[in-house]
Structure formats: structure tokens, C-alpha cells
Design a protein that fits this description.
The chain is mainly alpha-helical. It is built from 21 helices and eight strands.
Length: 560
């Protein structure tokens, strides 16, 4: 990392690897001059599972369950590249039906990957709503995966010469229904995000990559196509049966973060078009080339012995990899995913080298963030589509009690009304909402109307849960927090009489809040809600209460 030696007031900030916005185990050492980025050094290698060496000590069939861990957001692509390499090495033909099924699964996986890119990206730049929307469609994709493969994420579905199983009855109709539904969801995303002035301010003109820069840095995928280069391996290499479908390569010419966003949104729509055509034209026939089960199988003179045929465990079919080398690639959601394979007339690959797209695309990050603002790092990093982890970033607030100290309920009510009114004004302006936006003079009663509707019109109680626990739990959590501000011992003129006793009583009362959270989760009669209650209680105990305690102690000292 090159840091200018003439400046003495530079600040070095460590972002990650354990950071809410570092999706995965990425660490950035950022040199700042105020809010301006002077230099950035990405550091990798905090998570290394030795996938290449594992592949060199396993047969292809034994290695298939491992490959989905490369990128669990695009699992079908890692399986596809793993079976495509020995297929091309042995010139193995894939049945037409199996090729159509592969294309459908690959495009569904592309949609799932782009969705989980969109949600965290929008959350990092300040928009929380799309993060929750994307899981709605993503769960539908995983339902289709589960129905076809038996697993939601780690499928182990692709096989040399085809797929592991045919599509179940009714699966095609469900997938067609999903395609029709998802197109409306993409339209909803575009209305919510694409023309949002705040979003455009954050991404337009940020992280510009020119045509020559994209080529020289070896970029691929949406990052390459957003810089004006119409390069898609599905069109270039014509693998599987992509050349039989009518679809267009999505590309932009500006090269900024907005262009890369538009490319990914367009790719999801094109994926739906490919899936619909494949579902409507899928042929009959076998889903696996059964003849290759005997292709170059390792001969064993004891295969016909009595012990092997009737007693011993039979291993899965193995294939000898011919003594040659080749490079195979597919167009993954993040870019070009490739494998360099060398066979040595053995069941194990002599060399298995993985070309990951996210790792290559990350090389240009230091150049993109230089002379940018600190807040632009997450915008550029998320657009780079580096391998990320699912996460949930939550923002917490603290109620600052000033005057009157003994009427917190009134103060909190006024504050909530003002915040809801302000949020409604901002949301209406951003979304260009049509219709009445105000209730009462100057809209001051709108927040009260919204709160009344929430309390009396919305059914928030689970149908199969314990309604008493589910209703009492939030009350205990909220009331305990409000009571914690009433038990602090103050003397005359609002002077704190004893800081130690006040802090002790505050901790005692606040510790009741996690019990209410657990009651709500348990009363919902839903394992996911219960896990959410456990997580919220753990967060409250681990850092919410200590953080509020620190701020409260400082404020009480100041009052005194």
C-alpha cells in the first residue's frame, strides 16, 4: 500500500473482515484524508477451504457435493462447471432433455444470485425495504429447487452426462407460474429503485470503468458488459442449448455503478425469457446419458467375485480422465467461472484450478475507490459482486429523555408521531404517491391515523400461536424499557442522587426486555419466529443494553 509520505494527518481505517457491510471475509485497509479515500488495500485469504486440492484427491462424483460451497448464491453454476470439464475431456454427449433442464436450473440460480445481490446492495446505501422484498421471490426459487433436487441450497443435482433426476410431476407448471409472478416483482423493483432520486445520487457516475480498463483488468460478467462490451459466454461459447432460445445480451456503455445495476436487473428479465422458452419447448427422452456409466471405468478383476456382488459395498461409478488438459468456462452471475483441468489417465484430476469471477473482479477495487468518498466504498464494493454472506443489518435508536423527566410516555408519543409524519412525507415524495397524503390540518393527524390503523385494522396475531403470550411479550419488552427511565433516583432540581444505584436499577429493569422477546417468539408457534426472538434477545443482552448504558451514564453525569 502506497501512502503519501508528505501528509501527516492521514487516517488509516480498518474495514472488516468482521464488519456489517463486508459480505464475506474481506478486509479493506483504507487510508483517508478526511472523508476522501487516498488508498485502499484489499486483503483476502481469511477463509480458505483448499477446494482445489480436495478435487485432486477425489473422483468427480465424490467431489460434486463439495462444489456448491464455492459460491452458495450460485450453486448450480459450480456444479455445471464441475461436470462440464470431464464431459468435454471425454467427449460425452448430454441428452437434449437434460440440457434443457440444466439451462432452467442455471437461470433460476442466476436469478437467486442477483436477488441476493440486490437486497444487501440497497441496504448498504440506505434502502432497507428492497432487502426484505428480495427474499420473497428468492424463497420461491428455492422452493422449485427443493422440489426438483431435494435440497434448497446444496443441491448435488448435476451429473456427468445429465442430471441426477427428472423434473417431478407438476414442476413445469409451478415454474411457469413463478415466471409470470416474478416479472411483476421486477417491475415493482424498477418503480421503487430505478428512478429514486436518492438512489441515483448514490450510484450515478460512481466507480466508472472504461472499456480499456475493463479489458486490461480481466473483468467479466456484469462489470464487463456495463462498460460497453457485449461479451456473454452463453453467446460466445454456445454451451448447453442457449443458442436455441431468443434472448438478448444486457449491456450499458456508461460503466458506472448505475449501469452495473441496470445490467443485472435486465439479466433477471432475460433469464425469465429463457426459462419460459425452455419450459415450453422441453423435449422428452432420458435425463442422463446412461452409456457413460461404463465409459472408461477403472477395471477391477474382482468385480464379479461373490463378495463384491453380494456382500461388499459397491462404490459409485468412476471415470478415467484422459491424459490431456483443457479450460472450461460458464457465464456465472458474477462473471466468468472457469476450471483448468489436467487429466493423467487416472480417476483423480492431476490438476484442478478454479478461476473465480469475484476474485478477479475485485482487483480493480483500489483504483475505483481512490479520490472517492468513504461512503462510496460500499456502493462500489457491492457492485463488484464479491462473494458475500447473507446478513441483516439493523439500526438501533435511543430515546433521549430531557424534559419532563417524569413524563416519558408523553414525550415518546410526541416523538413517534413526529417521526411517522416525517417518514410519510419523505416516502410520499420519493415514491411520487398519488392520492390523499394528509389527515387533519397540515397533516398533523396523519401519524395518529396510521397508528390507529396499525393497532385496530391489521391482524398481527398468528393463527396457530398462543395469542396471550404473543400479545403480552411485546408489552413486557416495551414497558420494561419505559420503566427503566422512571426508577433512576433523582434528587431535588433533577440532580442525580446516586449514579451507582441508578445504573444498577436501570440494568435490573432493562434485563426484563429479553424475556418479552422470547415470549413473543415462543408464542408465535413458528420455529423461524422463535429463532428470531432468540436472536433479538441475544442482541439485546450482548450489545444493546451495554450501549444504551454507556450513553445513559454519560448523560446522567452531564445532568449532574
Amino acid at each position: 500500500m502506497n501512502v503519501p509520505a508528505t501528509r501527516e494527518d492521514l487516517m488509516i481505517v480498518n474495514m472488516g473482515p468482521h464488519h456489517p457491510s463486508m459480505h464475506g471475509v474481506l478486509r479493506l485497509i483504507v487510508t483517508l484524508d478526511g472523508e476522501d479515500v487516498i488508498d485502499c488495500e484489499p486483503i483476502l485469504g481469511y477463509l480458505h477451504r483448499g477446494m482445489e486440492k480436495i478435487a485432486e484427491n477425489r473422483t468427480i462424483i465424490q467431489y460434486l457435493p463439495y462444489v456448491t460451497r464455492w459460491d452458495y448464491l450460485a450453486t448450480m453454476f459450480t456444479e455445471a462447471i464441475t461436470v462440464n470439464a470431464p464431459e468435454q475431456l471425454g467427449n460425452i454427449q448430454v441428452p437434449k432433455r437434460a440440457s434443457y433442464i440444466r439451462v432452467i436450473m442455471l437461470e433460476l440460480s442466476r436469478i437467486a444470485s442477483h436477488l441476493l445481490w440486490l437486497g444487501p446492495f440497497m441496504a448498504d446505501i440506505g434502502a432497507q425495504t428492497p432487502f426484505f422484498y428480495i427474499f420473497r421471490e428468492r424463497e420461491l426459487v428455492y422452493d422449485l429447487f427443493e422440489a426438483a433436487t431435494g435440497m434448497r441450497m446444496m443441491h448435488n443435482y448435476f451429473r456427468i452426462g445429465g442430471v441426477a433426476a427428472d423434473l417431478p410431476y407438476g414442476w413445469i407448471d409451478k415454474c411457469l407460474d413463478f415466471c409470470d409472478y416474478f416479472l411483476t416483482g421486477v417491475s415493482e423493483y424498477q418503480k421503487l429503485i430505478t428512478r429514486n432520486p436518492i438512489f441515483l445520487e448514490r450510484v450515478e457516475g460512481v466507480g466508472i470503468i472504461g472499456v480499456e480498463e475493463a479489458i486490461n483488468w480481466g473483468l467479466s460478467g456484469p462489470m464487463l458488459r456495463a462498460s460497453g462490451i457485449q461479451w456473454d459466454l452463453r453467446k460466445v461459447d454456445r454451451y448447453e442449448c442457449y443458442d436455441e432460445f431468443d434472448w438478448e445480451v444486457q449491456w450499458q456503455k456508461e460503466g458506472d455503478s448505475l449501469s452495473r445495476y441496470l445490467v443485472r436487473i435486465g439479466e433477471m428479465v432475460e433469464s425469465i425469457k429463457i426459462i419460459q422458452q425452455a419450459l415450453e419447448g422441453i423435449p422428452g427422452g432420458p435425463y442422463e446419458n446412461l452409456e457413460i456409466r461404463c465409459f472408461d471405468r477403472v477395471r477391477n478383476p474382482e468385480l464379479n467375485d461373490f463378495d463384491y456382488r453380494f456382500i461388499s459395498k459397491k462404490p459409485s461409478p468412476t471415470f478415467e480422465l484422459s491424459k490431456q488438459e483443457l479450460y472450461v468456462r460458464v457465464e456465472a452471475p458474477k462473471g466468468e467461472l472457469g476450471v483448468f483441468l489436467i487429466g493423467d489417465q487416472n480417476v483423480f484430476p492431476w490438476r484442478w484450478k478454479i478461476r473465480p469471477p469475484g476474485f478477479i473482479n475485485l482487483q480493480i477495487l483500489p483504483q475505483l475507490v481512490k479520490r472517492m468518498k468513504l461512503a462510496d466504498i460500499m456502493t462500489i464494493l457491492d457492485i463488484n459482486s464479491f462473494s458475500r454472506l447473507e446478513y441483516l443489518k439493523e439500526v438501533y435508536g435511543m430515546i433521549w429523555v430531557l424534559v419532563p423527566i417524569f413524563t416519558p410516555v408523553l414525550g415518546i408519543t410526541i416523538g413517534v408521531l413526529a417521526i411517522v409524519w416525517l417518514e410519510r412525507e419523505i416516502s410520499a415524495g420519493i415514491q411520487q404517491r398519488i392520492g390523499p397524503e394528509y389527515a387533519g390540518p397540515l397533516g398533523i393527524l396523519q401519524a395518529l391515523a396510521d397508528g390507529t390503523k396499525l393497532l385496530f385494522k391489521e391482524n398481527l396475531l398468528p393463527s396457530r400461536g398462543d395469542t396471550r403470550l404473543f400479545s403480552i411479550g411485546p408489552s413486557i419488552a416495551v414497558i420494561s424499557i419505559l420503566l427503566s427511565y422512571l426508577i433512576i433516583p433523582f434528587g431535588s432540581n433533577l440532580v442525580l442522587s446516586d449514579l451507582n444505584i441508578g445504573v444498577f436499577l436501570w440494568i435490573a429493569i432493562s434485563s426484563i426486555a429479553p424475556i418479552g422477546l422470547l415470549m413473543s417468539g415462543y408464542g408465535s408457534n413458528n420455529k423461524y419466529s422463535f429463532l428470531g426472538g432468540l436472536r433479538a434477545a441475544a442482541q439485546s443482552i450482548s450489545y444493546e443494553i451495554p450501549l444504551t448504558l454507556c450513553v445513559l451514564s454519560i448523560s446522567l453525569r452531564a445532568i449532574r
